[in-house]
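re: ur question from yesterday

yeah so i grabbed the chain u mentioned. its 694 aa long if i counted rite. heres the sequnce exactly as i have it in my notes:
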Amino acid sequence: MTNSKRIKPMLFPAKVFPATSLLSSLIFGSALAAAAQHDETKVIEEVFVTAQKREQVLAEIPMSISSISGEVLAEMGAEGIRDIAFGTPGFTVSETGPGAQNFQIRGISSVAGRSTVGYYLDDVILSALVSPIIQPDTNLYDLQRVEVLRGPQGSLYGEGSMGGTLKLLTNNPAFNEWSIDLHAAYEFAEHRGDPNKIADAAVNLPLLTDRLALRLVASAKDSGGYIDFPALGSKNGNSGGKDSARAKLLFAASEQLTLSGMLLQHQADSESQHVADINFEFPGPTPQTTADEYQIYTLSGDYAFEHMNLLATVSRFDRQSLVVSDLSQSTLPSLLSFGPFFDPLTRPLIVDTFDIVPFSFDTDALIDVGEIRLSSRDTERLFWTVGFFSKRGYQLQEVYSEARSSNDPSATPVVLIDGVQSVDTDTQAVFGQVEYLVTDYLTVTFGARRFEEDLEAAFIGGAAGLDTTHIDKAEFSATTPKVSLDYVFIEKGDEVGFGMVYLSAATGFRSGGANIRTSGGFDDIPALYDPEYLKTYEIGTKLLGAAGNWSVELSVYNNNWKDIQIYQDYGGFNGISNQGRAEAYGIDWSLMLKPIKNVSVMVSGNYNDSVFAQDTPDKNKGDGIDFVPAWTASLSLKWNFSWLAEWPASLRLDYNFQDSSRFIRRSDNLILEADELNILNLRLGLIERPRWQV
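ran it thru and got these structure tokens back, copy pasting raw so excuse formatting
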């Protein structure tokens, strides 16, 4: 390729300690003592998940799912979503700071439009209303488990769950058990950077025997910086912090009715984004501040009828975030061709004079969600779920960018964009899924969701010296079906293992939106961009050994993605348009093995070949999907043993591999390349039951 820029950035997670990490933790109380006990069996435990909005055994669901328990998260030392992604093949996260994350599953990745991955904390939708690159930060301490659902989940989870769905499930209070969990950590890098200091606590309070309990959780983290900013004279300048608190109340009002409520406060910030070159330096002259704060309020009620369950839940997600970026390297060269803005005789002078370009997004978002669903229970051949979903979302985003001069502070800054964008969306959906056992071995599943949205978007302000004030209204709708067929060829029992093969076809959907555009000079920018659709066809198998000491999961899939929402350059001003289609072929696999008592091994991976199937204004046919690695893989080894006078101990080794990936923007002759990642995590624990653990 000619006349292109090849930049190889190193994008690091908030936790980067490549050489040495020291972690100490104290755990008190009997509630967590069970997690510390030796693994005395050679049998793989059954795992239950709620991927299909009812509790099921993971191995019996005809879908590719990863489930990570809270105990395993603690053993891994996982602190953020990117730590989960490293150990979950096919799932990757691009993160530049708190509240600045982008998720992709199975190659469905985009920096335009809305998120391609559904993102939930319990039943609360965390996905950003507009941009997929500002997904909120979360705390993984004291979670029950994390579920990663691969492939479109359009029937049960709806708009945005195209590549898949990420679910974080918090621990419920225990009615009859007092417990306190205290955790402290000190992490440092051997050769550079400041240390991390972490403190967590969880308290379970039984308030009324068998009826009422409260769980309180609090966390604080002081993150040391490790990136230098020579232009600012700053060393280790990307330090930050994260604080969160959660209260969850559970009330058994009767044998049939259970009520629960949760309050959550989360705050995270960083003095600069976690972006650097290979020398851990960022050359730009602008501090890239990030901050993310939100509050969550939820109420839910679950009533058990004789043959069905009724669940009603309401939630509010109130978020404030700030992302400041340094666009000096990417924006200034484009000013040379910014015809509507600068006179040809003065353009070179302006570019030579102004060398600082900060760009900020200051966002306030409010999302109210309500859902009612009925699910069958205690049935033998027919299982069903039906529901109604409503979401009202409002987002106000202040956007500002200017060009300044470091050589001439008295020079008047040139304002590139200054305005306020508002998005008001009202969504309703009805959904249902039916599973029918045609025989004792053959099951047919059909699900569908009808989605309708009223959208109003406005922008008040100016850009490139032009008026950009406008109001757009649109209506979007879609029906997203799913059908699957699974056959059990080895029935689970005491003397045999388990074997199942399945086929599925599912549809994913991402709604449309409105562009920021001018009243003159860029008339070809479309007012609206349309929804996009994904069809995925999958065949898979799940096997469990007769002795229960090994399991295998394998799935092969084909993605057909059309009307893709991509940023396009309109003579120096960006807009989103629907550009062509892409195809992908991929495979997920995992192997769990317990070869001997107290030893467990897990090997998993994903191969994904995602490419554009036709030329577009920004992509050539055959270009890969942005930020999608071809290979991801992980290896985990755990050994429980006795050491130092018969003290129980645990040794865990995790190796994660993520292939290189690229971002291509041919209209700007720009190629960003991210190197492959190899991460090795070795953790040794000593346990004195039931009082404490290191």
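noticed a couple things. Residues 1-40, 332-350 have pLDDT under 50 and may be disordered. also Residues 70-76 form the longest helix (7 residues).
anyway ttyl
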